[in-house]
Known about the structure:
The protein is mainly beta and about 160 residues long. Helices cover about 5% and strands about 40% of the residues. The chain has a single domain (about 30-155), classed as Immunoglobulin-like (Sandwich). The radius of gyration is 22 Å and the shape is globular.
Amino acid sequence: MNLKVRSIVVGTAAALAVCIPLAAAQPAPARVITLKSTDDMKFDITSITAKPGEALLVKVVNVGKIPKFAMAHNFVLLKQGANSKAFADQAMKAQATAYIPAALKAQVLASTGLAGPGETVEVTFKAPTAPGKYEFICSFPGHYAAGMKGVLIVSKSGT
């Protein structure tokens, strides 16, 4: 916190230092992206554009009806160049870590927890600073193979 020190004279010989917080520059609020997920193992949005370093809040809303143990959804943004199929294959065996394989966690830029029917999960992160395409997937078993994936496109224009 930035503080500005002011002296206040009390009586004739004593001075008291008082710390008054200065207004700090507030970061821009995160842009909200809401992804609806369904029992057909699809996201309703498969392409997101962002400027380098832009703050994003991704919400995954599960609008399905199948119980969570059989049909949960998440959002996993992978580093540029990560092999999303290999990640999804390993994720199928990672139930204990919410389908984020510990050995491949370094490939994850951002991820949510798992959303069951009627639940919403979210993650706030900054878009990568390097322009390019970054794949996002649902890592619940079988969902990537069924097409539950998309791409974050980072460009200077944000379009």
